[in-house]
Amino acid sequence: MTALGAELGTGNALAIHLDVTKPDAWRAALSTFHDRTSRLDVLVNNAGILISGPFEANPLERHHAVVDINLKGVLNGCYLAKPYLVSTPGARVINLSSTAAIYGQPSLATYASTKSAIRGLTEALNIEWQRHGIWVMDIMPLFVQTGMLTGINARSMDRLGAQLTPDDVARVIWAAASCRVDFGKVHWPVPAKATWLLRWTSLAPARLNRFIAKWIAA
Q1: Which of 49, 86, 130, 208 could bridge 204 with an S-S bond, Cβ 3.0-4.6 Å?
Q2: Tens digit of each residue's pLDDT (9 = 90 or more) over 48-98
Q3: 104, 213 in Cβ contact below 8 A?
Q4: What are the C-alpha distances in Å from 189 to residues 26, 88, 124?
């Protein structure tokens, strides 16, 4: 991040260390950023980790770490950034969810739980904060080619593969950050396959959704 900040130049970027699990770190980072810019047009909640394999095969502490970073980190960001967002006309929040939020994924149970919670939080805040002019959305990608997938133990990964690159997701984030405000558009699946999966599960009976999720992951 520091290298990217140097590449972009001090006039275009501000590199700040942030542990998303610590509210005081959020307060310091947001204050530093606002002191430089006097506004917060877009908050992107992107921090996340993943554990995989049978639920009981991972230490309980690792499950807690996933919740602390993936969910509590987003809660911290949204909560503490709100005053800055309210003071910036047209502000928006972009949370990184996942297609794992569409239906719980075996071998990714805790990860999917946090992403499902982010989906619910996003939907709720998009309604609640509309009166402040803050548009809240989430990005829902399939597997992305990042270090997060190193050593992953999940059949769904074998079946679906990692077809997306970070650039693919970044382009959708940019589209969400720069398009005309539309409070009715909350979820941004990536790629088209994910869009159809979201639409299909919203219409299909629960038993069929469970069957599809089981087929993907079994």
Answers
A1: 208
A2: 999 999 999 999 999 999 999 999 999 999 999 999 999 999 999 999 999
A3: yes
A4: 28, 27, 18
AA letter at 126? N
Q: Which domains can be identified in the chain, with CATH numbers?
A: 38-217 (3.40.50.720)
Report how far apart, in Å, the C-alpha atoms of 116 and of each of 16, 62, 87, 111, 205 are: 28, 18, 29, 9, 19
The encoded tokens of residue 28 equal 């310091």
Which residues are known to be catalytic?
111
**What contacts 24+ positions apart, CB below 8 Å, involve 14-17?**
none
Considering Cα of 17, then 22, then 24, then 27, what sign does the dihedral take?
positive
Helix ranges (DSSP H) in 133-165 = 155-160
On whether the pTM is more than 0.85, the answer is yes
CA atoms within 13 A on the CB side of 20: 23
